[in-house]
Hints:
Blueprint: E1 7-10, H1 28-41, E2 45-48, E3 50-51, E4 57-58, H2 61-74, E5 79-82, E6 104-107, E7 112-113, E8 118-119, H3 123-135, E9 139-144, H4 147-158, E10 167-172, H5 182-195, E11 200-205, H6 210-219, E12 223-226, H7 243-256, H8 264-271
Parallel strand pairs: 1-2, 1-12, 2-5, 5-6, 6-9, 9-10, 10-11, 11-12
Antiparallel strand pairs: 3-4, 7-8
Helix pairs in contact: 1-2, 1-7, 4-5, 6-7
Amino acid sequence: MTNPCIICVAITGSVPTKANNPAVPVTIPEQIESTHEAFEAGASIAHCHVRNADETPTSDPEKFALLKEGIEKHCPGMIVQLSTGGRSGAGHERGGMLPLKPDMASLSVGSNNFPTRVYENSPDLVSWLASEMRTHQVTPEIEAFDLSHIIQAIRLHGEGVLYGKLYVQFVMGVKNAMPVDREVFDFYVSIMKTRAPDANWCAAGVGPGQILVNEWAIAAGGHTRTGLEDNMRLDRETLAPSNAALVKRAADLCEKYERPVATWEQAREILGVPLRT
């Protein structure tokens, strides 16, 4: 197998804190430094959240602008993907950073249960976020927490609602959503191959299942996501020392399955995300 594997690094998220692991980058300078290390280790996409000084998540466009500027300066060519997730805001606030014209942005096209709440993505909000992404030429990365989200994404892309090439990420391991399950994973891959053969897909495992889902995705010919947002631990006892260490672990799996780690140039070509001038 020779097709390059894109490694996305989710650098901080909105839940893990320094109390859980001192390696978690929270401030903008910390996130830029951590992203640079992950970029050098092989990551070609940075999935980004921003936080306030007290570590609470926010969708503040000014903070996103500073983070985007820093990543573009220190990681030239890396794909910047900003989160429109619901932990950082509500309603249209969740898309307030899209006028910054990041390369990509996450998009959830359906609702589901999270550990302690409902992750709500109403049809009207999904439509508005997708419209904003099209206006600003931002390629969505579909975060699929359930089979229905994959089916919905394929339909919306076919109708021209989603901008750019279709890119679907299977998110497995969130409590009360889809667990890390090999039979389900294989079915997801089959659905993408039969119903969206020209699309690209990746997979992310949350918690202890991170390394398992990384390996499944790489072995099956897809792309993968790693990073401190998704899994605080390399195993049940050892704290992950950095985002770069998790990227290196994914890169080692690429070597195991004889897949080159995608460069940022290859990642942009595969996903149809040109470098903005």
